[in-house]
Every structure is written in structure tokens, then in C-alpha cells.
Design a protein that fits this description.
Layout (H helix, E strand, L loop, with lengths): L2 H17 L11 E5 L5 H19 L3 E3 L5 H10 L4 E4 L1 H10 L4 E6 L7 E5 L22 E3 L5 H13 L12 E2 L3 H9 L5 E5 H10 L8 E5 L7 E4 L3 H5 L3 H10 L6 H9 L5 E2 L7 H9 L5
Helix pairs in contact: 2-10, 3-4
């Protein structure tokens, strides 16, 4: 039975209980959150474990993190109603909103207002730093890996900027790879499996800062122009399932994260963000346009 059907059945029972003199109460169930698997699973488990604890205290419900195997699975789980809120990338969020009418944009990180991708390379490739988008033309005849096939920062926008530089996938040395995640992209370039990789700038910066990416073994060669990216998307059934006003309570809890205590500081650092801020659907119009041009949206 779908979660929405279960919620409707419980609501109907509540009405009957009220008519018989009992007090109607909201369904007592867990809030399930998820996210695209864009990083190492252990890092994601730590991050969303902290987020679950924080939201549980703020909202007075049990919050459970449900990991998924790939980007497509994150959209499918949201569409089926298996999760209540998901931290999507720009493209996966657009896909989910198109498949689930009435979905609610809750918040984005401050860094998602001006998000960027980076191209990194093996020093052995001998590629000098690139000054502008047109300079990406030097990547012709190079081996290159993206992240997930539907990653905004790891595939969609890097391919868009390559197209602007006049570089088609056919002009690369062999078919482009798809590593599956930003961390895997770094590892493949460091190992020399590919000469060049494209990934999230925020993940790259975080890995350099924590020492897990060695700038001597993998070097940044280009940072793209900015665009809007990741965001939290909520189910259209949040209020029906958890009570009137719950959607706004969830949004407020996310926007309230300001690093006022150590746990909030840890959460924001794991998100590589300074805060969460409001967002609107119009912020992702360019991503939708690019995705349609690449045949990534139905």
C-alpha cells in the first residue's frame, strides 16, 4: 500500500474516532528523508544521521535516513512516496518535481545560489590551467569521466560548458566515463584511469581541505561559471501525513540551521555550507532547459 493511501486510511479512522467521542490525533509515523548518493556512503551516513537527529528534535517526530543506490533510485523513491523529503541535485530535483506535481521546494544551501563545477586532471596529462570556457577546447582527444549520468555538477553542467567550447563527447579520447559519484571521480583521475574528471566544486574543495584529495596527484584546471544546484524537496502530502503546517515547520527547521551550537556547526560543515536559504522553482529553469536539450527529461 502506498504511504499516501495509508495516510488516508488513518485519517478516515481518526474521523470515526472523533465522531464517537474520541480525540483525533495525527498519524504517529516516521519522517523519512533521503539524498542523492553523490559522495562516499560513509560520509552521507554521518551527515544524514546528524540531520535526522536535529530534525527529530525540532519537529517532535522520529526521523529516519533512507540511503539509495543511485540518482535514479532517489527520484523513484520520492515518486513512489517511500520518502517524505529528499536533498536532490539540481537535475534530479527537476525530475522529481515533474514526476510528483505539488512537490514543495523547501530550501537550498547558500552555496547553491552560485554553485560551480570543477575540471580536475592528472599532472601526467600535462594540461595547463584553463582561463575561460572557450579554453576547454584543449580537452579534445583527452580521456574524461563525469560523475553520475544525471548529476548536475558532475555531468549536466560540465557537458554544457564543454558544448559551449565546441567539444562534443565524440571528440574525447574514447567514450566518457561515469564514475557514479564525485569522490569516485577524484579517485579515478588520481589513479590515472582518466586524464580529466568533472565534479562538484564544493566536494572538491572539501576533499582538498580535509586531505583526502592530494592536489599534487589531482590538480584543478578549471572552475565553471555559477548556476543554482542542490535543494531540499518535500512531498506534497507532508501536511496530510503529519498535520497542518508541518511543511512550513520543516522548512523553518532547515532555515534555522545557523551554527549556533556544535551540532549545527558540524551539520553545516558536512554540507559545506554556511546556512540554508529559501529557493523557488524559477532558480532551476536553466537546468531544465539544458537537460531537455541533452535528452535527460521526458
Amino acid at each position: 500500500m502506498r504511504r499516501t493511501h495509508l495516510a488516508a486510511a488513518l485519517a478516515a479512522l481518526a474521523v470515526v474516532a472523533t465522531a464517537c467521542g474520541g480525540a483525533a490525533e495525527p498519524a504517529d509515523r516516521e519522517l523519512v528523508i533521503s539524498a542523492i548518493p553523490d559522495q562516499d556512503p560513509e560520509k552521507l551516513q554521518r551527515l544524514y544521521g546528524e540531520v535526522s537527529s536535529y530534525l527529530g528534535e525540532q519537529l517532535g517526530v522520529t526521523v529516519v535516513y533512507q540511503p539509495v543506490t543511485d540518482y535514479t533510485a532517489s527520484v523513484t523513491s520520492f515518486r513512489r512516496g517511500d520518502v517524505d523529503a529528499t536533498f536532490f541535485g539540481g537535475l534530479s530535483g527537476v525530475q522529481a518535481r515533474l514526476q510528483v506535481p505539488g512537490s514543495v521546494l523547501l530550501a537550498q544551501r547558500d552555496i547553491d545560489e552560485n554553485f560551480r563545477s570543477v575540471f580536475v586532471a592528472s599532472p601526467a596529462a600535462g594540461i595547463a590551467p584553463i582561463a575561460d570556457v572557450a579554453g576547454l577546447s584543449v580537452l579534445r582527444e583527452r580521456t574524461l569521466t563525469f560523475g553520475s549520468e544525471v548529476s548536475t555538477s558532475g555531468r549536466l553542467m560540465p557537458q554544457f560548458f564543454l558544448d559551449q567550447a565546441g567539444v562534443t563527447p565524440a571528440e574525447l579520447a574514447g567514450d566518457p566515463g561515469f564514475s557514479g559519484s564525485h569522490d569516485a571521480t577524484i579517485a579515478l583521475v588520481e589513479a590515472g584511469t582518466y586524464q580529466v574528471g568533472a565534479l562538484s566544486a564544493s566536494v572538491w574543495d572539501a576533499r582538498v581541505a580535509d586531505g583526502s584529495a592530494d592536489p599534487a596527484a589531482v590538480v584543478e584546471i578549471f572552475r565553471t561559471p555559477s548556476y543554482h544546484d542542490y535543494h531540499w524537496l518535500g512531498s506534497p502530502d507532508l501536511d496530510a501525513d503529519f498535520g497542518a503546517g508541518f511543511t512550513e515547520r520543516l522548512r523553518t527547521a532547515l532555515l534555522r540551521l545557523d551554527g549556533s551550537d556544535q551540532r549545527e556547526t558540524d551539520i553545516l560543515e558536512l554540507f559545506t555550507a554556511g546556512a540554508f536559504v529559501p529557493t523557488v522553482a524559477e532558480n532551476y529553469t536553466d537546468i531544465e532547459t539544458v537537460a531537455r536539450g541533452l535528452g535527460l527529461l521526458q
